[in-house]
Amino acid sequence: MRTEAIDPPGITWQRVSPKYVTVRMVQWALANVATVLVLALPLVLVLAGVWAWPPLWLAVAVPAVALVSALWRLALIPRQVRAIGYAERDDDLLIRTGIFFQRTMAVPYGRMQYVDIGVGPVERGLGLCTLKLHTASPGTNAQIPGLPAAEGARLREQLAARGEARLAGL
After folding, report:
1. Helix residue ranges, H only, 48-113
2. pTM more than 0.85
3. What is the C-alpha separation between 68 and 85, in angstroms, rounded?
4. Pfam families recorded for this chain (predicted)?
5. Which of 125, 135, 153, 158 is geometrically suited to a Cys-Cys bond with 111, CB 3.0 to 4.6 A?
6. CA distance readout (Å), 48 to 24, 51, 127, 162
């Protein structure tokens, strides 16, 4: 899906690896399974007769709503990953994210202070990495997750070289 309001014309977006869906699902499982289990604890205590409050309907409703919400977020993960993209232009790097709340960020090469790569245990196992761009502005939270490790290393070197060339020209 293309949104004319935020996508510059003529851009060919590079997409992240589809393996990144697995990374996001592991993150989802770690966060949501624990949350639903904690929220289901009052239900277990009510059914065991140990606790009289909350009422049964409330003890069922809270974890049920949390579970439905978690499953909705799980269903969105593949689409969210497909929405992540980047494009190298002459003067800047464009990064695009989001389905409902879309964002296209342009990071000028001359503003980059350093570029680093982060790898978590699941990413490492899948041969992926996250490229992080640091500028003088703390509001620039530019990162490209789900890159194949070789592409991340290439991009890091390419962006660092372009950044130094732009700074030297100032």
Report:
1. 56-82
2. yes
3. 29
4. bPH_2
5. 135
6. 35, 8, 46, 64
